[in-house]
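User: Study the fold:
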Amino acid sequence: MTKQPLIIDDHYTGEVSPGGPAQRRSIPGATIVKLSVGQMDNNTYLITDSETGKSLFIDAANEPDLLVSYLAEHAPNLELILTTHQHWDHWQGLEQVAAATGVPTAAHPLDAEPLPVTPERLLEEGDTVRIGDLSLEVLHLAGHTPGSIALVLEEAGTGRHHVFTGDCLFPGGIGKTADNEKFASLLDDVETKLFGRFGDDTVIYPGHGKDTTLGAERPHLQEWRERGW
């Protein structure tokens, strides 16, 4: 049987599911394609600079054969594969995708050791990932894992921000933590580095499930703190 090509839907809602089409959002200067893979409904993100065609891929989570063919077709100028954190469901396709594309990989040093591919690039708080004319800021959000990172992309000309949060922030709360100390660490980092810096129109692209905005989540920060881990 001939495998059907992956469909990319340009009507972006942020709601994707494994086996379904990817969705593409066009913003000034870039496109963002969201694709869900695997039994744990892991989101992957392909960010492409509109001017140069160069791309960044976030979380080669699962279904490596699908990801390899998808990237070959839609990211011929792929420059970096970034892993948001060390949990196994976010890197099951990493070894095969990295080998097939020959592209460098990146992660935070505190989460690098468990990965199946040693990252060529180690990213820490305040670092910049440059893809073509795009610059994405690295934020370290500790608590879900020691080395979880988020990437911040600012829209050209508008100032609106798009943040790829891995498993650190979702609609309805922060990511799972193992104890009160890690919960406090993650919530403090999310509150200070995201809610404390960026506007309500900031779009949040999580590692699983639907997108959200800081404006939708901001009223619930105190509820989350009282709820605890």
